[in-house]
Structure formats: C-alpha cells, structure tokens
UniProtKB/TrEMBL annotation, chain A:
Domain named DOG1: residues: 255-463
Regions of compositional bias (Low complexity) in chain numbering: 100-112
UniProt region (Disordered), positions on chain: 1-24, 97-189
GO MF terms held by the record: DNA-binding transcription factor activity; transcription cis-regulatory region binding
Segments of skewed composition (Polar residues): 113-126
Name the UniProt record assigns to this protein: DOG1 domain-containing protein
Cellular compartment(s): Nucleus
GO cellular component: nucleus
UniProtKB/TrEMBL annotation, chain B:
SUPFAM superfamilies (alphabetical): Thioredoxin-like
Subcellular location(s) of the protein: Cytoplasm
Record family assignment: Belongs to the glutaredoxin family. CC-type subfamily.
Protein name, as recorded: Glutaredoxin domain-containing protein
Residue ranges occupied by any Glutaredoxin domain in the UniProt entry: 43-111
Length: 494, 138
C-alpha cells in the first residue's frame, strides 16, 4: 500500500464509500489533502461528536504517557472521563461504532449532517485506529480491514501534517511511534488540528442550527399562506372570526379584526379604482359607469359600517388611528379624514364644474366645516368633563369617580360614529352634486390621494437619514395638495 | 347664544302655577308636552345639561347663527316629567339605546337626533328648513 491517494485505495474497496457528493466536507478535506470522496466514511454516525473523541484519543494517549491531566482540551465539549486504559476510554464506543459500521448508507444531507462534526469523523476514526487494541479495529466488521487501510492512509496524511514528515515510510514510522503510545507530548500541530476540528465541529453545529431555523421559517411561511387562504374562504362564507388574539397583546380582538378587515378593504379599494379608471378610459355609458360609481360608494359605506361596529368595542383603536399609516394618522380627525379638507383638495381637481355645482361644492365645504367644528367642540367638552371628574378635588370615593369617568368615556364612541357619519354624508352629497363621469373622476382622485399619502408614509419611513431631503419638505404645509396637482393633467383627457 | 331657562315664564317650575301643570306631571302625556314645546319656537333642542353631544349640537346651531330654544330635561321642575319626556323622545326617533338626546325640532317638526341633523345639514336640507321656520335670515 504505497499509494497515498485515498480515493483509489481505501474507497474503492470499501462498501459505503461510493458517495461522491460529499463535497461539503471539502473544507476539512482540503485542509488535509483528502479526496472529497473519502469523506463518505465520515458521516456515518449522526449523533457523535468525533471532534472531541479525537481529542480524547490523542490526549488520552498523552495522559497515559505523562500521567497528566489535559482537562481543558479534553473536557471542552463534555469530554469523556479519563480512563487508565485505552479500552475504558470508550466505554460506550464499541457498541456505537459497531452500529455505525453496519450502517450501509452514509448520512448525506450536505452540510446539515446531523453529526455535529461530520468533517471530523475521518480523522478521529483514523486516530482511533492508531491503537490496535482500540475497540474500533477489533469490533470493526466486514469492512474493517479495508477501512483500516483506508484510515491508515489517512493517518499518513495526518501524520504528514503532524510531524511534517515527507515520505510514507517515515510517516508510517511516525504512526508506528504513535501506535505504541509515543512518548512525545502532543505537538503544536496536533493541538492546532484539534482546535481546527473543534472549530469545524462548531461551524457544523451552527450550520445545522441555521438550517433548522430556515426550515422553521419556511414551514411558518407555508402555514401563514395556508391560514390566509383559510381566512379568505371563511370570510367568503361570511363566518365571523372572533376571538383572534392580538399581536403581542397590544391589539384587542376587535382592533385586530378591524385591522384585518381594513387591509382587505384597501385591497378592494385598489380594485375599485382600476374599475373606475377602466370605465373612464373606455368611455362607458353613464348608466354603466353609474354602477361602478355606486359600487365605490358602497365600498366606503362598508368601511364606515365596520368602523361603527369596532367603535363599540375599541374606540381608542379607531380614534388614535393605529390602523392608519403615519402620514394619514398625522392629519387624522376624530378617527378618519376631515371632510372639509378632502373637499378643499377636490375643488381644484374637479374642473370643469357648472356654476350650480361650484356653489354646491362650496356649500358642502361650508356645512361640513360647521359640523366638524361642532363635533370638535363637543369632544373638547367631553375631555374637559373627564378631566374634572378624575382630577377634581379630594377623592371621596375613588371607585365612584372612576365609574363616572367611565361613563363619560363611553361618549367617545358617539363622537367617532358622528364623525364617520359626517364623512359618509359628505361622500354621498358629492355623488349627488356631480355627474356620473365627474363622480367617477372624483372618487378616483380621492382614492389616489390617499394612496399617495400612504405611499408617502412608507417612503418617509425608509428615507435616508442625515440628508437635506427633510429640510426641503419641512416648509411645505400643503405637501399633500401639491402632490395631488400632477394628477390634474392625468384627468384633462376625460 | 341660546336660551336655557325656557322652563321659565310662562312655565315656572314647581309651585302650583297654571303653567306648571302643562308638562310637569299630571297634565298631558309626555308626547303632547313635547309637541307643544316644539311648536312654540323655531328651533327646539331637547337636551341634557351634562351631555357633550348635546353641547355639540348647540354649538352647531350657534355656529350657523341660529338661536335655538333648549330644554334641559335633567333640569326640569319635575324630574319625573323630564324622564318621561326623555323616554318619549327616544321612541319618537326610534332609538334603541338610552342615548336618545339631543333631539331637534325645527318649525315644530321633528328633525331627529345628531346624526339626522348632521345629515340634513350636509345634504343641504337643514338651512332651507331653518329659513322657512324663520330661524335664519341670511
């Protein structure tokens, strides 16, 4: 056996060694000049850390020689108890290794080999065969002799890296020396190699963890899409999915429900808008376009109805605008858009209008302003009343005080509902004032406006900090209106 | 702004004056009382003094330049009469819950609670109504 080419000698004769796809073991193999195919032998034991075993073997030899404890290296990874003889060094090994030997197939699976240190197997097994009396060589079954030769050659390589010995004969000799429990203490190279083994073992374990995590993510993603589908199905069947626990306990179930429905509403919104756009482009007849327009109104009626339901359970969620994007939330009025602001935005977008229509729009703007003002003042009084209740004077009866305050707080629902009512009425009135085509255009503008406001929120969130960009925009008080201007040209075709 | 002590002359609360009997119990039923009071002024608001929505509706009319007559049902001479009227109003507007007030009458005719008032203001029917009732001149 003069040849040191692993692939040709050891593997060609041995059984389970025809797995040439273990290229993952290259790092270690390359390190030691091993043929990748030779690593087939490595991955037989799924749960055994050969890195530490290898250490144990080598160091045990040292211990026997020097009768010194090399505890740090030895016990780094829960090393084995020292034994006075080589035999007792591996109390459980014979059985396991025997089991391994009988395993016909090697464990593949690339880098996620279950053995934490698959890459180390060869060297450790090779090392294990140093001592002829080791259980491995003794218990090794059919392929043992072949493996021994194979490992012997590997040992040659290791010996080469070990002692820097060149030709095989000297390395053999070197091995022989080691076989006879050499008197030399483990040299630097051995220690380094052991460290490398540990490192490789660690990397392998880490890789395994990462793979497991990725696997988990994948499964979760699949589960998520399945749940979404179920949800869609259930929704279509009109089932009321109550009791969904909020994210991290921050959302009440009503709030979580609303957020979910709102997300769906946003999707529907996009769909309605493309319908409107298509209808306008196609120059549909008024009666056909009216259907689309009325559908869009119903679409808004739906969200107001939803908010009404949610207001009963969680008015704070609505009024604080948790469900809205930051830019929307910033300009939120009583849990939604401010009708007069919307009309102000629309006025320039709705040209051409008849004089009567112009008057109607301005009148609408005026009355919505008055209504908003009234509601705002009512809300102010509510706050004042609440403050008086919980802040006023000596606490004679805390619970009574709180009960009264709760009663007052309950009025919030009424205000949000009236505000939504105002918004709904405004949209309906717009529909009445405008012609069908104008109304289609109008709702398209509204939809696009809020779409851009939402987009603005995302852009803002992902903007690069420490730039002058922020300064440019800070002076604009009507950024939203200016943003909407460009759409004007978009509509002059109609 | 608006007159809140409309319980006053000629309807002085308590003591056995003639005017009192008209709505403070005994006399007519609450619906009749309501009807009578509503017909007496151009704009009549039945309210509760501590209610903020009632405050909002008062602000709405004042903001429009209207001078409504407000009856605070929790401050009626006879609390029972007041409660009766509140319940009657609840039935008039078809409210299922106890939050019936405020309720508005214009020109003696029922307009409704806050949502109806706002809707009629937005759809432009409130102002003509007010003008017809003589509550608004512009």
């Amino acid at each position: 056996m003069g040849s040191h080419r692993m692939g040709e000698t050891g593997l060609s004769d041995s059984g389970p060694s025809t797995h040439h796809h273990h290229h993952h073991h290259l790092p270690y193999a390359l390190l030691h000049g091993m043929n990748p195919s030779s690593t087939a032998f490595m991955s037989q034991d799924p749960a055994f850390d050969f890195g530490e075993l290898e250490e144990a073997i080598v160091l045990q030899g040292v211990k026997i020689r020097n009768d010194e404890s090399k505890a740090p290296l030895f016990t780094e990874e829960g090393g084995r108890p020292s034994a006075s003889t080589t035999l007792e060094m591996f109390p459980s090994w014979p059985m396991r290794f025997h089991h391994q030997q009988q395993q016909g197939s090697s464990r593949s699976g690339g880098e996620s080999t279950d053995s934490g240190s698959g890459v180390n197997t060869i060297s450790s097994k090779a090392e294990a065969n140093i001592e002829p009396e080791s259980p491995i060589s003794r218990k090794a079954a059919s392929s043992s002799s072949d493996h021994y030769h194979f490992q012997h050659h590997q040992m040659d390589q290791l010996a080469v890296s070990n002692g820097g010995a060149g030709p095989s004969s000297s390395s053999h000799h070197h091995i022989q020396q080691q076989n006879q429990s050499a008197d030399k203490p483990p040299n630097e190279k051995t220690l380094r190699r052991l460290a490398q083994n540990r490192e490789a073992a660690r990397k392998s374990r880490l890789r395994k963890k990462v793979q497991a995590y990725v696997q988990q993510l994948e499964t979760s993603r699949i589960k998520l899409s399945q749940l979404e589908q179920e949800l869609q199905r259930a929704r279509q069947q009109g089932l009321f999915l109550g009791g969904c626990s909020g994210a991290g306990g921050n959302l009440s179930s009503a709030a979580a429900m609303f957020d979910m429905e709102y997300a769906r509403w946003l999707e529907d919104d996009l769909r309605h808008m493309s319908e409107l756009r298509a209808g306008l482009h196609a120059h549909l007849s008024d009666s056909d376009l009216r259907i689309t327009v009325d559908r869009y109104i119903s679409h808004y009626d739906e969200i107001f109805r939803l908010k009404g339901v949610t207001a009963k359970s969680d008015v704070f969620h609505l009024i604080t605008g948790v469900w809205a994007t930051p830019a929307e939330r910033c300009f939120l009025w009583m849990g939604g858009f401010r009708p007069s602001e919307l009309i102000k935005m629309l006025i320039s977008q709705l040209d051409p209008l008849t004089e009567q229509q112009v008057m109607g729009i301005y009148s609408l703007q005026h009355s919505s302003q008055q209504a908003e003002e009234a509601l705002s003042q009512g809300l102010d009084q509510l706050q004042q009343s609440l403050v008086d209740t919980i802040a006023g004077g000596p606490v004679i009866d805390g619970m009574q005080q709180m009960a009264v305050a709760l009663g007052k707080l309950a009025n919030l629902e009424g205000f949000v509902r009236q505000a939504d009512n105002l918004r709904q009425q405004t949209l309906h009135q717009l529909r009445r004032i405008l012609t069908v085509r104008q109304a289609a255009r109008c709702f398209l503008v509204i939809g696009e406006y809020y779409g851009r406001l939402r987009a603005l929120s995302s852009l803002w969130a992902s903007r690069p900090r420490d730039t002058l960009m922020g300064d440019e925009n800070s002076c604009q008080t009507t950024t939203d209106l200016q943003m909407v201007q460009p759409s004007q040209s978009h509509f002059t075709n109609f | 702004m608006y007159q809140t002590e409309s319980w006053g002359s000629p309807y002085v609360p308590a003591s056995g004056r003639n005017g009192v009997g008209s709505y403070s119990g005994g006399g007519g039923d609450p619906f009749e009382r309501i009807e009578r009071l509503a017909a007496e002024s151009a704009v009549v608001i039945f309210s509760i003094s501590s209610c903020c929505m009632c405050h909002a509706i008062k602000r709405l009319f004042c903001g429009m330049g209207v001078n409504p007559t407000v009856y605070e049902l929790d401050q009626a001479g006879d609390p029972i009469a007041g409660k009766e009227m509140e319940l009657a109003l609840m039935r008039l507007i078809g409210a299922s819950s106890a939050a019936a007030l405020p309720v508005v009458f214009v020109g003696g005719k029922l307009v409704g609670a806050m949502d109806r008032v706002m809707a009629s203001h937005i759809n432009g029917t409130l102002v003509p109504l007010l003008k017809d009732a003589g509550a608004l001149w512009l």
